[in-house]
Amino acid sequence: MAPAPLLTLTGIALGFGGRPLFQDVSLALGAGDRVALVGRNGSGKSTLMKIAAGLVEPDAGERFVQPGARVSYLPQDPDLSGFATLADYAGADLDPAERWKAEAAMDGLGLKGDATPATASGGERRRAALARLIASEPDLMLLDEPTNHLDIAAIEWLEDWLDTTSTGFALISHDRTFLSRLTRATLWIDRGEIRRQERGFARFEEWRDKLWEEEEAQRHKLDRLIKEEARWAVEGISARRTRNQGRVRRLAALREERSAQIRRIGPAALALEAGERSGKLVVEAENVAKSFGGRSIVSGFSIRIQRGDRVALVGPNGAGKTTLLKLLTGAMESDTGRIRLGKNLTPAVFDQNREALDPDRSLWETLTDDRHIGARGGHDQVMVRGQPRHVIAYLKDFLFDERQARGPVGALSGGERARLLLAKIMARESNLLVLDEPTNDLDVETLDLLQELLADYDGTVLLVSHDRDFIDRVAATTIAMEGDGKAIVYAGGWSDYRAQRGEREPAKPAAPKAQAKPQPKPQPEAAKAPPKKLSYKDQRRLDMLPGEIDRLTGEIAKLEALLADPDLYARDADKFAKATAALEQRQKALEDAETEWLELEEAREALG
């Protein structure tokens, strides 16, 4: 008999105006559980975790914790106010004789406890919060983005500790490697509901895609039933036959069922477009050196980066990755050596601190008043790669709704800020992308799409990241900042770098690796491997078709309602003729869209 869960939520409901965030949600977490909590940005993962931690009161439902069970919560932004040092904060829950537990955790995480909270970096604050949680030895841990702001060394230490602990935990993270290695079950928040699979994150996408396929098939079947019933209704009325009220009620019930379904939100409509081609040489560094306060950041460093290269910079926090990135892009002068930039470079920069976003400005102002993007039409349009778009339509591409457009940037979540910054830089044509920690706070679907865009991007990419999986998928060259001014160039991504150093990489699911541009010379047709998935264009079309089918179905319903008036022809024959023609046109368009969806879906399954 399974032991009773340590924490249960039953019938949880919560709303912040408009559609409820949760409705009748239940879950249970027990000792030894290793659960990934996943879902789109804005789906309510952090809110649900705060409810589980007892920090947010739901509108309805109950939270129960087994008497005597200790549940600890790691917030995204820990409050360290009132503590003189990070060590004081980390050991605050312990008796003086047990402070060694906090010190041991700080040592493992690479944290110096004498730093003050006021001067601590985001990574140091996160380490202190982790050390406090670990030292308290809870029975259940609720971890909200524990790897954010941590360098890879600290992530791997935490990964090893969680892998060996007997304490149960539920965690939110964007780090695929971290989730795949540690979790044994997955809780998926999708449109206000929670689904659970007794498999870890490594099998999540396979499970999610299968559920989506089944859902789309059911929706498609329902749409066809509605279409058949609606055609009968129109034909019956046109022929002046007595209507079968049972079938009319059936049609109404089918439409009610269809309208009650909440369609899943597709991925953000990210798009990158390279502008004028840069010269073949993008950056050349020869014997570059840079120091601060007598501390060598980089010494004797040389590299030649060419058009289409994908270069990742890795290393501990404070090793100088961002400094080297600034040197390579000309944003900072070297002390010695020479840096030569190529011709016709048009950079776009994604900075890890989101400094390009003013928290006091609205999303509307952030896009329309940007000097690089430009504004048109009384500040209601934004130039997107040379074409004017209404700011609301462009924001919707990045999954923002109209209500958020006039709201302040400061009210956005971390993932929403990342998407807004992507919207800013993707509105511009560029041939050099500088990405400093782009993966923080982004959900899995957006990360997947960003990776695909980078693979197809004709420009050059310079990347700083602590996300091992993302580096493996994107980078063709890795610069490792190894301390004492050493910056060594390795071929390949993170796993390749580790292999070349003779270090064993923990087992993890294979990740598809993006190819660096320029692409290898085309092989003869017979030698080409068959594609393993739909092209980006076909996949985008497949994602868009359900919305198009919905729109056509809605327009058909309105026309059918108009033609349902038995006196319309006698009253206005011209209007009747136009409505009939419009109905036929939309029914034909709907049939074509449904056929296209089926063909693309069959092609996707065949490539499967």
CATH fold-level name of the largest domain: Rossmann fold
Please give the CATH architecture of the largest domain. Answer: 3-Layer(aba) Sandwich
The CATH homologous superfamily of the largest domain is termed: P-loop containing nucleotide triphosphate hydrolases
Q: State the name of the first-level CATH class of the largest domain.
A: Alpha Beta
Number of helices: 19
Decide which structural class fits the backbone. alpha/beta
The counted number of beta strands is 21
Mean pLDDT: 81
Cα(first) to Cα(last) distance is 39 Å
Give the DSSP E fraction (strand runs of 2 or more residues).
15-25%
**What percent of the residues sit in helical stretches (DSSP H or I)?**
25-40%
Q: Which term fits the overall shape?
A: globular
Q: What order do the strands of the largest sheet run in, or round the barrel if closed?
A: 5-6-7-3-8-9
Instruction: Detail the poorly predicted runs.
Output: 237-243, 258-262, 371-378, 507-530
